Amino acid sequence: MTFWLRFLTTVVGAALLTASASAAELAVVGTGDGVELLQAVGSAFNAQQSDTKIVVPPSIGSGGAVAAVGAERNQLGRVARPLTDAEKAQGLQEAPLVRIPSAIFAHPDVGVRGITSQQLAGIFSGRVENWKDVGGADLKVRVVRREETDSTLTVLRSSMSGWKDLTLTNKSKVATTTQEAVEAVKRVPGAVGFGPYSRAIENGAIVLAIDGKGPHAGDYPSAVTLSLIFKRDKLDDGARSFLSFAKSDAARKALATHGGIPLTQ
Hints:
The protein is of the alpha/beta class.
């Protein structure tokens, strides 16, 4: 009897391992904006089924997502900007998921919790060089910026007072991803940067109120929209299932928990 129990246990265990190993990985590639939010949605999806495992790899940018999905190397991409007419003409479609407020975040030792939009423009232009000049600590301002094509910078230029034609200081560190910008600000005393808001930023940095408004204020002007992109006729069952789940109440709950503002589907 013992032999047969061991035999059955071995067979069942092997079957379970095979089933687990057979889950196909589906990478959702693209922007670094909102990566923590999409990872949370992927984790919720993975927890409810075992056929497809969603993975959210490091950023290759919105342009990288368009290139990968357009060339059919990946079924799903993530972007923080609308598709252009030319991209739509290639067969690409978009599904907006969540509005992510733009955040201005700083090292905790800067000594302020909020500044005015005029002070903000002065900081990023280099006119304000010490935090004491905006009511903070006697500490040198160290700007962490993004490249000109960054989606958050684009939104700031179109929506934040004083940013439309603002020339960013060349005495700054240029971060190539959102994650790099956040980590630099957390690590360097006096540092300040910008990027899409997530609750993870506040673990080691402070998010500054601008003109008395935090990122989730109803009239806070600046935000990006995170969307999934795809070619509908190239989706397999797993990709279609994840797209459907991403519009569910469970997905919206995950997005809101991590600091996003889910869009009505």
